[in-house]
Amino acid sequence: KMSVPDYMQCAEDHQTLLVVVQPIGIVPEESFFRIYKRISAVSQVNVRDSQRVLYIRYRHHYPPENNEWGDFQTHRKVVGLITITDCSSAKDWPQTFEKFHLQKEMYGSTLYDSRLFVFGLQGEIAEQPRTDVAFYPSYDECETVEKRIEDFIESLFIVLESKRLDRATDKSGDKIPLLCVPFEKKDFVGLDTDSRHYKKRCQGRMRKHVGDLCLQAGMLQDSLVHYHMAVELLRSVNDFLWLGAALEGLCSASVIYHYPGGTGGKVGSRRAQGGSLSAEAGNRHRPGAQEVLIDPGALTSNGINADTSSEIGRAKNCLSPEDIIDKYKEAISYYGKYKNAGVIELEACVKAVRVLAIQKRSMEASEFLQNAVYINLRQLSEEEKIQRYSILSELYERIGFHRKSAFFKRIAAMQCAAPSIPEPGWRACYKLLLETLPGYSLSLDPKDFSKGTHRGWAAVQMRLLHELVYASRRMGNPALCVRHLSFLLQTMLDFLSDQEKKDVTQSLESYTAKCPGTMEFITLPDGLKLPPVPFTKLPIVRSVKLLNLPTSLRPHKMKSLLGQNVSTKSPFIYSPIIAHSRGEERNKKI
């Protein structure tokens, strides 16, 4: 049973060859990843003397049990192994080379070719010319790494092409072997291998397998033809698991045709021109120009039209964007019939969502995601749960479901601090919680709450702020606790019950005893700045009652001045008192 899903899978991964890069012995992590980065940059290669392009997918870790599903979908098969090792003395060389052979055995029969890169060994051994081993004096002196990788990929292509031609050619009289997934093998013991039903099943599965090989070999149109034929054969014998795979193959080939920029999110990343096995071929190939992917010379007569002139420039047998989604739905419904195919079903859902995101069909994408949420896999580790929820969050964000995205990101944050983890990652928890804020319409700037009506669900926002306070405390940052509690009290005051107000103020009191609040900005490690929180809503004014001023401050009437001729006493030329007395005299005269 395949147990480890790859949440980053895209439809276009079906056209890639899988190469694993691993260290042998003790290799410094920094040195390994420096070389790995250079190797993985050679991800797209033009095939010499051809107009085809090979795409390579590199992994530095790949579970061997996933490799067993390589016949079901060939992009899951490890076809190349590159190992990196430190070896400074000639006496260590035999043991190093033995380890290289043991590493190859791990992936067994699926490998097309392998390479060993040795760093640090110089002298007689290093000077012997070898195809499978490359020697470099140090990690800084290895200019030819990329060229070696291009040569290695060319050797992978030669094996791939021979397998494709061998399997695609009808050998009349030869029995076609039955390809199986690991859990099926015990079910086929004792079956009648001469029945028409069995033969059709063998033909359908092999036809689907050849479609995979064509897609990997850069022959898009041919793969579509094979997939269509496989669908017909497999449907006629109700071979549902493999029918699902043939339909998904159709979807993948059609997605590659319609969306040359890829569906993985980084626009154009798939088609960026990589290494080239010949400059001439590189000049001929335009990235993303699917019409040049067909290779007329390699077509055989087994049901494929040898006259390819009419196919150049148009996608014969290609699904429309709408049909792609319908076929994904059908494929996923077939996968759902087999509990051992949970990973395949989950990854198909994720691939369909990425396509729907490009098509801007958010509601349909959410249905696929909802299905993915409920697919039961084996007991996941805490790390795998964090990865699963983070990817679900990212996919919901991509289709514009911001609140749902925040919901899953918050679950991922809680998972970082799960009780079962020996050393809970409170910093990771806090960082993920901060990323959920926009989804819940929550800003950490009090100014955003001073204008207009309250946005978002206050109860959820308060819960989130409490979680930020708790994570801050567990990180050992009381200043952050004070800032978040002050913010909670200032912005959510209208929504707090009397008991909650009491609890928050008591917590704030205990925290400020250790670390007084300030009016300074707090800068977080990732650069985010938390503004100060002035208490403009506190204290709360319940009623207003006028009190007498102290005697010394009370006003007194100046009666004595009214009876005198104030003009001589006053320093002012004109005053309200003078105006008043003159007005009275004028009234008397009248």
UniProtKB/TrEMBL annotation:
Location in the cell: Golgi apparatus
TM region(s), chain numbering: none
Organism superkingdom: Eukaryota
Any Pfam family hit: TPR_TRAPPC9-Trs120
Keywords: Golgi apparatus
Coiled coil: none
Gene Ontology terms: cellular component: trans-Golgi network
InterPro entries xrefs: TPR_TRAPPC9_Trs120, Trs120_TRAPPC9, Trs120_TRAPPC9_N
Ranges where the Trs120/TRAPPC9 N-terminal domain occurs: 187-260
Similarity annotation: Belongs to the NIBP family.
The protein, known as: Trafficking protein particle complex subunit 9
Origin species: Pygoscelis adeliae (Adelie penguin)
